[in-house]
Write a structure and sequence with these properties.
Length: about 140
């Protein structure tokens, strides 16, 4: 059975503040507003000339990566986008991390906010890419 909640005048500002905090946390937990794509869509973009950024750390990239990918760790992107990539703003860019939900969305949001409007996140990451049967490069075998 539900009880009726009653607050006195002194508690109302606190309750209102708590309510606002809950709304802010809920809105921020959605993640960045980016475009996510699956492995098949990524393959199509890549086959049509999209740039591929692997935003995992360099050791992960060295272990395995999508053929043609450029290592651009999220830790680098958080500091600044290297000037060498300035001319890619109008290009299609596929961004991936390991699972597609940790670093990839953040990196995609950073690039989108910097004017790279065609940057998208490979939602299943390199794991999903490999699970879909697409080739990866393994350097440490």
């Amino acid at each position: 059975m539900l009880k009726e909640l009653k607050f006195n005048q002194e508690q109302l500002p606190f309750v209102a503040l708590l309510f606002i905090a809950v709304i802010v946390v809920a809105l921020n937990s959605r993640g960045p507003d980016i475009t996510n794509i699956n492995a098949l869509e990524a393959k199509s973009l890549i086959d049509n000339g999209a740039i591929i950024f692997d935003v995992r750390e360099k050791d992960r990239f060295d272990d395995r990566h999508i053929e043609g990918a450029i290592s651009l760790p999220l830790s680098v992107l958080k500091v600044a986008i290297p000037l060498v990539y300035e001319n890619l703003k109008s290009k299609s860019i596929v961004i991936y991390c390991g699972d597609g939900i940790t670093k990839g969305p953040v990196a995609t949001a950073i690039l989108n906010e910097a004017g790279y409007a065609k940057a998208v996140n490979l939602k299943p990451g390199i794991d999903g890419w490999q699970d879909a049967g697409y080739n990866i490069i393994k350097l440490n075998e």
